[in-house]
Amino acid sequence: METRSNHVLVGAVVLILLVMLALFTVWLARIGGGREKEYDVFFKQAVDGLAKGSPVSFSGVPVGQVEDIALWPKDPQFVRVRLKVKDETPVLLGTTATIVGSFTGVSTITLDGAVRGAPPIACPETNPEQQCPMGVPVIPPKAGGVAALLSSAPQLLERVTTLTERLADVLSDRNQNSIAAILDSTNRLTDALADRGPEIAATLAETRIAIQRAGVASQQIGELAATTNGVLANDIQPTIQQLNRTIASAQKSADTLNEAIGDAKPGLQAFSKQTIPQVNQLVGDLRAMTGALASVAEKVDQGGATALVGRSKLPDYDPKKK
Predict the structure, then answer these.
(1) What pTM, to 2 d.p., does this model score?
(2) Where's the Mce/MlaD domain (predicted)?
(3) Rg of the chain over CA atoms, in angstroms?
(4) 168 and 112 share one domain
(5) Which among 151, 143, 47, 150 has a CA at the least distance from the CA of 98?
């Protein structure tokens, strides 16, 4: 009985020590692990190779692991991946999450793209449901690696198929005949150009000479224009200045004449209304007097001076003339 009691006591003590060792190990793990933060990443692509416990690295440095993987109930197109990373990890605005695959089939999540001085990714105080639908901050995804290639494989295959169909249309029998005809025409044109090579060279030489002559002519025209400008500046400009002075003098004389006419306008009006009628009357009187004098002169010519004082003497009667 005493031996059996000793064994039970030793077993109990050993069991207690093992439990204490396990608790101490957990406590050390918590102390060494420090605090951790959780983030969600919504991938709109296949997450093959990811599993709970898959490593999470930041620029190649291990910082955490995948906590959970599930379809997002609000939109099954997205896969929600819950990450748990160390508290000191610089998950700032601009940080993105990328699935990196490997040939072994195991995938990891890499975080990168943090900008120095940017604020950390966190849920806003107002309307947190929009940016944090599951209650934790969201890291935007970034397509990359084998997963991105596999996700874009259907579109790539479709484009390759379309390109193949278009190449088949281009290389049809009809188009091949057309291409062959174009090549034949090109060959004939090349042969014709080769035959006319000397003529083309001569034409190019003449063209070069013509261009040189045109350049010389342009230079001469420029010199002539410069000479013409000098003549205009030296000879014509003084004449133009003299003409401008003459025009200014004539304008001044015209202004003076206008002022004189304006000053003489009242006298001209009186002259036209009073003097001119009197002159007309005087002219009429002069005409009447001239007529009377003409009549007197005629009488003097016919009858002498006596015609002015009496009647004309009657001729004597002669009976013999009867």
Answers:
(1) 0.40
(2) 37-111
(3) 64
(4) no
(5) 143
**Domain assignment present for 252:** no
Looking only at the bridges linking them, the beta strands covering 55-58 and 61-71 are antiparallel
Question: Does residue 116 form part of some domain?
Answer: yes
Contact indicator for 70, 85 with CB cutoff of 8 Å:
no
Could you report the per-residue pLDDT of 131-173, keeping only the tens digit for each? 899 889 999 998 765 555 555 666 777 888 888 888 777 777 7
pLDDT in tens, 179-216: 888 888 888 888 877 777 787 777 888 888 888 887 77
In a domain, 60, yes or no: yes
Domain that holds residue 159: 154-194
Say yes or no: 91 and 166 in one domain. Answer: no
Instruction: Specify the number of domains making up the chain.
Output: 2
CB proximity list for 131: less than 8 A, separation 6 or greater: 123, 124, 137, 138
The answer as to whether 29 is a domain residue is no
